[in-house]
User: What shape does this take?
Amino acid sequence: MAQWWSFRWQIVVVAIVLMVFLTNPGRSEPQTHLLLQTCSRFNATNTKIFFSNLNETFRDVRRKLSNSTYFTTSNLTTNSEPVYVMAQCRNYMSTSDCLGCFDYAASSIRACTTFNGARSVLDGCFLRYENSSFFDETTLIGYEGLCGNRTSSRQSAFETAVNGLLSNLSIATPKINGFYAAATTPVNGSNTTTAYAIAQCAETITPDGCRSCMQVAYANIRSCATNFIDGWAVDSGCFMRYSATGFFRNDQTTDIVPFLVDEKSSSQKGAIIGGVVGGVGGLILLLIAVLLWHRRSTRTTPGHSLFGATELQGPKYYNYSDLKKATRDFREENKLGEGGFGDVYKGTVKDGSIFAVKKLAIDSTTAKDHFESEVRVISNIHHRNLIRLLGCCSKGPELLLVLEYMANGSLEKYLYGEKRGTLNWKQRFDIIFGTARGLAYLHEQYNETIIHRDIKPSNILLDNDFQPKIADFGLARFIPEDQTHISTRFAGTLGYTAPEYAIHGQLSEKVDTYSFGIVVLEIVSGRRCTYIPDEAAGEQYLLEHAWNLYETRMQLKLVDETLDPTKYKEEDIKKVIEIALMCTQSPVSVRPTMSEVVKLLSDRSRVQNPPSRRNVNLSNKINSTSMSNAGTTITELSGR
Ligand SMILES: *[C@@H]1O[C@H](CO)[C@@H](O)[C@H](O)[C@H]1NC(C)=O
Ligand SMILES: *[C@@H]1O[C@H](CO)[C@@H](O)[C@H](O)[C@H]1NC(C)=O
Ligand SMILES: *[C@@H]1O[C@H](CO)[C@@H](O)[C@H](O)[C@H]1NC(C)=O
Ligand SMILES: *[C@@H]1O[C@H](CO)[C@@H](O)[C@H](O)[C@H]1NC(C)=O
Ligand SMILES: *[C@@H]1O[C@H](CO)[C@@H](O)[C@H](O)[C@H]1NC(C)=O
Ligand SMILES: *[C@@H]1O[C@H](CO)[C@@H](O)[C@H](O)[C@H]1NC(C)=O
Ligand SMILES: *[C@@H]1O[C@H](CO)[C@@H](O)[C@H](O)[C@H]1NC(C)=O
Ligand SMILES: *[C@@H]1O[C@H](CO)[C@@H](O)[C@H](O)[C@H]1NC(C)=O
Ligand SMILES: *[C@@H]1O[C@H](CO)[C@@H](O)[C@H](O)[C@H]1NC(C)=O
Assistant: This one.
């Protein structure tokens, strides 16, 4: 229904073009700072009927809002141009301000003329219509945090306070009747002394829907708090905002403490929404709106945006100084991770776009010759399960790659880190399936075969919908043939590395198939393949353990106990385990190709040739002595 919404470039373009006009400066403040407005790509067929329906549903919505409601929907479906409308004001708005904001949105959204869907999101309210019901939508891809550009003298203290506040709000809001909460928190030692924040969900979604929308919004908005004291997160079913400047009165906060105490208390939905009454400190808010408008409207210099229309073009060549500035001089706190090919930093530009910058840890003098042509090859790879290479910079002291940024981080975090146990079976299956598709594309569908060689959870990144995108593919291209040994980590991470490659350096696509099989076992079990078992206690390496269970038909014992057994079919998991084991067989000829894996995963039928342990080489396990001094790497075995 709303696929058009996923086109981020469209959002950026429209949002910038339509940025902010202020209405009625004489009245109290209806908070009409326009955050974004987008139109669908399809025209209504009969525009006369369409406009008449639109007008009628808008009138209905306005009538309901004038009766002290904050959220309402309306629909008119009796003729050929169905219209579904949703409108919502932030609960701190007075009825008259709410109506002022709605009127502003209703007039601004007319810019979408005959398009049969549109949305307009403002500070004080939002309005959306479509030609079919979207009232139960929670999250959609394509949303990112929107950041202001004001900073604090002690941003990290502010960030800590805001993160605590937003995290509390995202827990409390789904449990509160009306799905709205506003709260403040003091900030220690910064020139901004208080952080203000609100969170709100559409009232037509379920508490679970609100919860998952909050999680995504929280992940998006957090990325603003690292650098800025104003931030917004907009999604289909929810909204979040924080600021160092009060945008609601101090007596309009919600007591969220009762909703934080204990997850179980969610049944006591006593919902006490703090005094949400009319009247707003008009002048101050107007001033803020003017300032924001000024700042936002002055940042549209063409060609200056680091993001722009990169979705449509080849690689971009960035200035070293721009990237240095965007990553705040490659500061430690902007570091996202350390990969086999160098460290990755988060870059933020003024318009709020975020991207990842990889500092290639390779000798730039030897690699430079091929650098730009290799970048061109890789930046042509477009697949939904592969991280986009947006551009590069070869003019500075280091070679830099500019990559798509994934707010949810890597699978590693969700399997073993702070988010452990939060992925359900459906999400895990989607990750397995998407990863298989990404690899199949690299191996067989792109016009030259690209072998990844380092598939592991930390190289599988997750987008806002928890769909996987593989990172670091193709980077081996930057290293001259004869120098593949220069990076020890390049040899692959032992445990995920196929035995023939680890031991004999024999490289083929099936090396990735093997690693994929191991990663699938980890996803199913929540156990690391590199975990060194306590053999005295009867423990085994993950792969060995999986085979033993499979052969005794006890493979369900492998399943991560954080998974809710009512949420998956045993047959599905058994099949996935079977496919994973097939992938770990040797010799390579018995391992499936990745496109065969994709087919097996999408097929309803059972696996035809069950894997056999005869075909497995378990001698590849890590021995604890090499672990203790060499980490998980094997220096002398690399090569191709
Ligand atoms: C809604 O619009 C889309 C795109 O024009 C169209 O394909 C679809 O049939 C429409 N749905 C209804 C219920 O009219
Ligand atoms: C929609 O209608 C406008 C004019 O009303 C036209 O310019 C535009 O090309 C149409 N778009 C599509 C996708 O049909
Ligand atoms: C709908 O409302 C708009 C703006 O209020 C007005 O210009 C237009 O004539 C109305 N159209 C119909 C068909 O009622
Ligand atoms: C206004 O809201 C009240 C309760 O929320 C309801 O009883 C009343 O019918 C509404 N009035 C109108 C005109 O919608
Ligand atoms: C559309 O409106 C009718 C009557 O106002 C209502 O009964 C129905 O539930 C609405 N449909 C949706 C999807 O909200
Ligand atoms: C905010 O952005 C505007 C326009 O890009 C710029 O002129 C201004 O200096 C920025 N303010 C801060 C505090 O960075
Ligand atoms: C806080 O201090 C920083 C650095 O001293 C300054 O750039 C910023 O404008 C100040 N912010 C406010 C809101 O006063
Ligand atoms: C979040 O809630 C916890 C538990 O009630 C509380 O201790 C903490 O101070 C709150 N943090 C913020 C920033 O409000
Ligand atoms: C506030 O920050 C200072 C350092 O800037 C620290 O010494 C002090 O303990 C902090 N106070 C609180 C309550 O965290």
About this structure: Residues 425-445 form the longest helix (21 residues). Residues 42, 82, 116, 131-132 surround 2-acetamido-2-deoxy-beta-D-glucopyranose (ligand 1) (CB under 6 Å). The domain at 145-271 is CATH 3.30.430.20 (Killer Toxin P4; Chain A).
